[in-house]
Amino acid sequence: MKNKITDLLAAQIPELSREEIAGMLEIPPRQDMGDYAFPCFKLAKLYRKAPQAIAGDLLDKVGHPSYLSEIRTVGAYLNFYIDKAQYAAALLDTYRSVPEFGSSEIGKGKTICIDYSSPNVAKNFHIGHLRTTIIGNSLYKIFSKLGYKVVRINHLGDWGTQFGKLLVAYQKFGNKEAVEEKGIQELMDLYVQFHEEAEKDDSLNDQARAAFASMEQGDPEALAVWEWFKDISLKEFLRIYDIMGIEFDSFAGESFYRDKTGGIVQTLTEKGLLVESQGALVVPLDEYDMPPCIVAKKDGSSIYATRDLAAVLYRKATYDFEKCLYVTGQEQKLHFAQVFKVIELMGNDYAQNLVHIPYGLVRLKDGKISSRKGNVIFAEDLLNESINKTAAIIEEKNPNIPDKEKVARIVGIGAIMFNDLYNQRIKDVVFDWDKLLNFDGETGPYVQYTYARASSVLRKIGEPASDAINCQLLTDDASLGLLKEIERYPQVIQEAADRYEPFLVARFSMDVAHAFNKFYQECQINCPDPELRTTRVNVVKIARYVLKDSLSLLGIDCPEQM
Questions:
Q1: Between 433 and 43, whose confidence is greater?
Q2: CA angle (208 as vertex; 205, 210 as ends), nearest 5
Q3: Which residues, 6 or more positions from 281, have their beta carbon under 8 angstroms from its beta carbon?
Q4: Strand, coil or helix: what is 516?
Q5: Are the CB atoms for 298 and 278 separated by under 8 Å?
Q6: Same domain, 322 and 404
Q7: Are 347 and 398 within one domain?
Q8: Which CATH number goes with the domain that contains 71?
Q9: For 75-89, what is each residue's pLDDT tens digit?
Q10: Which residue in 163, 259, 331, 547 has the most C-beta neighbors within 10 A?
Q11: Does residue 417 sit in the same domain as residue 525?
């Protein structure tokens, strides 16, 4: 309907583009003021007339198309009242025009790579890793909905000086039996112990650097221990991802690119971009208001920037991506700005399609998480706590539902994901269990419960014999309000992709849930009139689909009963 009104106005205002007119259309603050309003202030200078007079002139010119029940002037505004039955019919036509409402083929034939999660090997998967994992997974689903082929990349932190530290710690303080028995926890303990001892003996840091240099030079003994540590870690990570229902297409981490960093140094040298600085090789970036990008350290070993440069070139050659997205903390903003600039200086025009997507921290009461000190909350503990708390709530409120354990898992994990995605990603996330698991608040369980309520309606009444809908029966405020929310879905998905902001989908799902619950309260669904009953049941089916589908774009499942 907005498009139709835009076209109606564009035919009478040739001085403004269609896009300008669409951008000027407003939604009035009250329903009695219409569905859309067009302000005429901007036209006053063009036509040298008062805005109120221009609104009156436009009213005379636009006529009275059938899809509008009324057009009236309100001061300097031209207000449009949509014919409610025709609006409902137009929305339903749109809903039925595609196999999956909200989907698009805008990304058909295009590939997007998303680099996310990427935990460090030999360290527990802690809550600091949850944000990148949850945000990246949601972006994967959003872009897939738009028709893109999405490559999910887990760029494991499995190379670098920290593994030199771990090798030294294992040699000095560890043993094979303890690692076999305790797995990644023992590796974590060794890492923490290394830093404690290095504070007393700085020579350990020199030994760590030498150990990593030996790895880069292909020391078979060092590499065998490293491979062992890596296998232990990956097995643990896969177990956590399985709990969350998250998968990846590639686990090519930093180590995958270690034999490709030499080519980066050679290319940068040939292009005259490298200079020596205090023994290291760097690309100067001072003219772009950035410090130099270090490509090779003094001892000749590579650095993570080198490996990220190699990764960009490999991904472009392998996947020919339209865009490559990096979902990491905002503290890495400078790092990626440097890497992207070096890629550009190397002569690659696709550098403009490399996008860093930053996010805020997960905050605890005692401050930021640090793996060096060992004060870490593990992701698995957090997920299990949410599941257990949800199970207790279910036991109290509805102990007889089937598959209680499965429902508790779906709702508990969904609550954490929704809490993460409900606000702009750049904002910090603080865990508040009372808020997180509130079935009546702005939470994932509330939206899931609304879906379960819609499912319950369909179970009790039964599936309608047809999908017939009499749009003349959907002109009440509650029905129309629900349809208006549903109408926004395709635009919300597109905007979420354009802005890399899953929170737009989360907020939309909440708006639909609120509108559905108002519809549920004010409109008797299982009513005596068969035509009205069929119409309303079909509206329930549509709302139920949109609730489930929008939550799925956040990585959240929906239980049929709660």
A1: 43
A2: 115
A3: 265, 268, 274, 275, 294, 295, 296
A4: helix
A5: yes
A6: no
A7: no
A8: 3.30.1360.70
A9: 999 999 999 999 999
A10: 163
A11: yes
